[in-house]
């Protein structure tokens, strides 16, 4: 079964965007995965297709209405559709490589792109939306985040990457950041490729790469090392 992505958005013209290029784009053309968009405003209310309203209790901005978004979700997910329903949200659980792999192994995803100040909590609960964040910062909407999530997932689908083994040593795959990379020329601006990489000794090379990955992780993301340590009993 091919991976099916359905994106609910007020700006469907933002898709496929970068997903229509390179590996993801070629895979889309081959039918390795499919991408559909649903215009939330089509389910808006009244003459002007209103999709938002003022926040209960007061405050700045507007909130995406529960009834409007629920109608769009129900339209996009007929009975029996078992795909996870994701809401791109800065308050969601951080997107991890493990989560990406789990999504890639599944049938697809329904992705809701929020706008304004947020989404009515009632539709999040009633339609079982799982909030997902791509980082501790605020975007103008969920569309860029959805593109990031889909790019991460699609590249892991069977046949998308030319070398299936190339993903095994990437950052986060083994709990560490990736080791440094080098290629020709052997020396550039007085900087030489580390001797061990030119030795042909695969055991030494593997040990060097592991040590460099651990060093970089300790310097830049010590939280990964802490989370990878076994729990003390």
UniProtKB/TrEMBL annotation:
EC numbers for this chain:
2.1.1.228
Taking every annotated instance into account, which residue ranges of this chain make up the domain tRNA methyltransferase TRMD/TRM10-type?
Answer: 4-225
GO molecular function, a single term: tRNA (guanine(37)-N1)-methyltransferase activity
Residues that hold S-adenosyl-L-methionine according to the record: 114, 134-139
| Pfam families given in the database record | tRNA_m1G_MT
The record ties this protein, via InterPro entries, to: Alpha/beta_knot_MTases, tRNA_m1G_MeTrfase_C_sf, tRNA_m1G_MeTrfase_TrmD, tRNA_m1G_MTases_N, tRNA_MeTrfase_TRMD/TRM10
EC class (word): transferase
Primary subcellular site in the record, as a coarse category: cytoplasm
Cellular localization per UniProt: Cytoplasm
Q: Which GO terms describe its biological process?
A: tRNA N1-guanine methylation
Q: Which top-level group of life is the source organism from?
A: Bacteria
Enzymatic reactions = guanosine(37) in tRNA + S-adenosyl-L-methionine = N(1)-methylguanosine(37) in tRNA + S-adenosyl-L-homocysteine + H(+)
**Keyword Methyltransferase appears in the UniProt entry:** yes
Keyword Nuclease carried by entry: no
Coiled-coil intervals: none
Q: Name one GO cellular component term.
A: cytosol
User: What does the UniProt keyword field contain?
Assistant: Cytoplasm, Methyltransferase, S-adenosyl-L-methionine, Transferase, tRNA processing
Subunit structure and binding partners: Homodimer.
Please explain the role this protein plays, according to its UniProt record: Specifically methylates guanosine-37 in various tRNAs.
Q: Which family does it belong to?
A: Belongs to the RNA methyltransferase TrmD family.
Q: Could you identify this protein by its name?
A: tRNA (guanine-N(1)-)-methyltransferase
């Amino acid at each position: 079964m091919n991976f099916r992505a359905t994106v609910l958005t007020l700006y469907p013209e933002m898709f496929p965007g970068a997903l229509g290029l390179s590996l993801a784009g070629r895979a889309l053309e081959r039918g390795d995965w499919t991408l559909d968009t649903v215009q939330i405003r089509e389910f808006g209310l009244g003459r002007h297709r209103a999709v938002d309203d003022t926040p209960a209790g007061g405050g700045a901005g507007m909130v995406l209405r529960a009834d409007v978004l629920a109608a769009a979700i129900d339209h996009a997910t007929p009975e029996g559709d078992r795909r996870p329903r994701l809401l791109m949200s800065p308050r969601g659980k951080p997107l991890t490589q493990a989560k990406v792999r789990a999504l890639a192994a599944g049938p697809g995803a329904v992705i809701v792109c929020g706008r304004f100040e947020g989404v009515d909590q009632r539709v999040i609960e009633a339609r079982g939306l799982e909030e997902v964040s791509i980082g501790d910062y605020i975007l103008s909407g969920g569309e860029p985040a959805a593109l990031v999530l889909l790019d991460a997932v699609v590249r892991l689908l069977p046949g998308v990457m030319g070398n299936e083994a190339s993903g095994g040593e990437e950052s986060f795959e083994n709990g560490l950041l990736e080791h440094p990379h080098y290629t020709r020329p052997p020396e550039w601006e007085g900087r030489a490729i580390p001797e061990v990489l030119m030795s042909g000794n695969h055991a030494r090379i593997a040990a060097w790469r592991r040590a460099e990955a651990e060093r970089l992780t300790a310097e830049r993301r010590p939280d990964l090392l802490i989370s990878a340590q076994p729990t003390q009993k």
